[in-house]
Design goal:
The structure holds two protein chains of two kinds. Chain A is an all-beta fold. Chain A contains no helices and eleven strands. In chain A, strands 2, 4, 5, 6, 9, 10 and 11 form a seven-stranded mixed sheet that branches. A four-stranded antiparallel sheet of chain A has the order 1-3-8-7, with no helix packed on it. Classes of the chains: A mainly beta, B mainly beta.
Chain lengths: ~120, ~110
């Protein structure tokens, strides 16, 4: 069974940094592209970043470009999101999601909460 | 960016009745080289992550009940639930994966009447 577990969220001050992790199991992680998607409280879904299975391609939403960095470690079945210069509007539940061949998001984790506040 | 617009924003349907959700994209999601529409539907129950229901606009994900169906092509798509069950209370999202930034519709909240 596919299992994605996010961690690393928490309360951080504006301008601060945070590193999210996503541990994958139950599938061949190294053959799947991965994404981060966030959901602000009471709002809809916002895609923020993509990484190809080999890390050769990385894409970002304009809202996080230059501040967030996506990476992965296939040997450890792990996905990461390094977030810096955090703003109040980054407050959200952050999900990792696998994407077969970079297409539809076939599996999602439960999410990790990030709150940016002073 | 491709803008995804869903309608209605909310919908109340009686148990056993059908429900239809529309999704329109600001540009075509049809890729002629493989004859596919790059459109997915997700269901998000309260307090849970989204779950994939439909991909390629009309292909049902494994394990998804056959009361869920997707249709449409180009810029106009529809998710149909043929006979509403209590567990279908959720917010439904369409999403385009034609190109980055991947974008979602604003969501349609489905409730029981």
């Amino acid at each position: 069974e596919v299992h994605l577990v996010e961690s690393g969220g928490g309360l951080v001050q504006p301008g601060g940094s945070l590193r999210l992790s996503c541990a994958a199991s139950g599938f061949t992680f190294s053959t799947y592209d991965m994404n981060w998607v966030r959901q602000a409280p009471g709002k809809g879904l916002e895609w923020i970043s993509y990484i190809s299975f080999s890390s050769s391609a990385k894409y970002y939403a304009d809202s996080v470009k230059g501040r967030f960095t996506i990476s992965r470690d296939n040997a450890k079945n792990s996905l990461f999101l390094q977030m810096s210069s955090l703003r109040a509007e980054d407050t959200a539940l952050y999900y990792c999601a696998s994407a077969w061949s970079g297409y539809y998001f076939n599996s999602w984790g439960q999410g990790t909460q990030v709150t940016v506040s002073s | 960016d491709i803008v995804m617009t869903q309608s209605p924003e909310s919908l109340a349907v009686s148990l056993g009745e059908g429900a239809t959700i529309s999704c329109k994209s600001s540009q075509s999601l049809f890729y002629s080289s493989n004859n596919k529409n790059y459109l997915a539907w997700y269901r998000q129950k309260p307090g849970q992550p989204p779950k994939l229901l439909i991909y390629w606009a009309s292909t049902r994900e494994s394990g998804v009940p056959d009361r869920f169906s997707g249709s449409g092509s180009g810029t106009d798509f529809t998710l149909t639930i043929s006979s509403l069950q209590a567990e279908d209370v959720a917010v439904y999202y369409c999403q385009q994966y034609y190109g980055t930034p991947y974008t979602f519709g604003q969501g349609t909240k489905l409730e029981i009447k």
